[in-house]
């Protein structure tokens, strides 16, 4: 049985971090659906590019109910799911991305 999304946590997270108008970038409505099941993004492996089993990034899925535009939040980074214990060599290192606007 898949673990259900606590949609109130996703809603709180969006309201805390989403700055500006919370409208869809495609149709400009504010009509979001917080999916109750986590999605997943497969980890890319050049040796097996079309192999669909293996590690994934767990994602909270947010969909515009008007046009279908969909975006994701990494459920572990956002704190919706507890990260699994990983060997140090497997864990990703945090990286600061420069903002070139300033
Ligand atoms: Zn839309």
Question: Could you please describe the fold and organization of this structure?
Answer:
The chain is an alpha+beta fold and 102 residues long. The protein has a domain at 7-42 and 52-74. Helix content is 11%, strand content 21%. The chain is built from 1 helix and 4 strands. Strands 1, 2, 3 and 4 form a 4-stranded antiparallel sheet that branches. A hairpin with a 5-residue loop joins strand 3 and strand 4. The structure holds zinc ion. Zinc ion (ZN) binds next to loops.
Give the strand tally: 4
What ions, cofactors and ligands are bound?
Answer: zinc ion
General form: globular
Average residue pLDDT: 87
* Secondary structure category: alpha+beta
Report helical residue fraction: 10-25%
Radius of gyration, CA atoms, in whole angstroms: 16 Å
- Sheet-strand content, in percent, reads 15-25%
Distance between the termini: 46 Å
Instruction: Report the order of strands and helices.
Output: HEEEE
Main sheet overview = 4 strands, antiparallel
- Uncertain parts: none
- Number of helical stretches of at least 4 residues: 1
Question: What is the compact description of this entry?
Answer:
With 102 residues, the protein is an alpha+beta fold. 11% of the residues lie in helices and 21% in strands.
Which features characterize this protein?
4 strands; globular; four-stranded antiparallel sheet; binds zinc ion; 102 residues; 1 helix; 11% helix
